[in-house]
Amino acid sequence: MSLHSGYKGPGDCPAIIPVFPLPGALLLPRGQMPLNIFEPRYLAMVDDALRSERIIGMIQPDAEGGGPPMAPRLYKVGCAGRITQYAETGDGRLLISLTGVARFRVESELAAATSYRRCQVSYDGFSSDFEPRAGEDAVDREGVLKALRDFVEVNDLKVDWGGIEEAPNEALVNALCMMSPFGVREKQAMLEAVDLKTRAEVLIAVTEMELVRGDGSEPTLQ
Fold first, then answer.
1. What is the pLDDT of residues 13-58, one digit of tens each?
2. Where is the Lon N-terminal domain (predicted)?
3. How many domains does the chain have?
């Protein structure tokens, strides 16, 4: 099943949304994130989302922020995604795909009325997320491609260079950020980058740090 999305600005998006805390999971505007849902609380979350706005907020737990194991503190910024594909499996799982709509800032977390977590959020400050390909001309595309080539060569990876060369800057940068193998803090820095140009710069910097380290461990932003 494919579900169409049509959010045009911050005022179109719901202020209270369910959130899915998942470390290392980075969703960006217009990006596609497949999810395999099997925990009962998240099955309930998807069912409820399908009955309303079809919006789920992807957000990373902050490992250094404290909180109980089942409800760790969250980073303040996440990204709302709309369920645009949905399928049931024979063993009770749900296979969904989220399409990124816009980033949000958590204002507060609601008292538990559901098995999953819900937050009051604001999209203020992220109005450019609603503008497809905003800021593409400022991206250092050659820098991004050079960092990718170096990373691919060092790690002996195979990539679709034809598809990469044809991708617009927004799709290229966001897809590489979402697919990157870097850690939670690095993913959060990419998410919180003020614009596409800065996100590309963060991606390049983190990739270069990883190449310099060359020991297979996660890079760390200072």
1. 999 999 999 999 999 999 999 999 999 999 999 999 999 999 999 9
2. 17-211
3. 2
